[in-house]
Design a protein that fits this description.
Layout: H1 4-27, H2 32-54, H3 57-72, H4 80-100, H5 112-137
Helix pairs in contact: 1-2, 1-4, 2-3, 4-5
Length: 138
Amino acid sequence: MISLYRKIFLIFLTVLLDIGFLYIIINEQLNEYDKNYLYNLFLIHIIFIVALIYNIKTIIDVCHCFMFVAIYLGFIIENKSILIILFTLSLIQCILKEIVGECILCTDKLSLFGKAVDKYNQYCVYMILVVLLYKIMF
């Protein structure tokens, strides 16, 4: 089970991301893909927050997977502000993983999901950081 401290931190971070995305939707010109991307993230985030509050581990894990898919889709995002937020989120994830020693979203130390995805996905996150940084810079 995710500790109360981690839940509060995750909800805070998710709401902070959504405020940034809402600001982008209101103030920037977005192509159709980028707009739909953000609307889908809002939906995932609402489901995620509800799952955190009610401790629905399966839904938390599914939303966790969707978040990584969303970050990987950053390859085709054009808006630099969205890319900066995705880069920052990925960087925060890497830093937290080093500080905590595991992904703060793992719902169960014994779950295959946490061990298998956590072990191999982290290398992809490092590569994504480089790609997102490249897209932001050029």
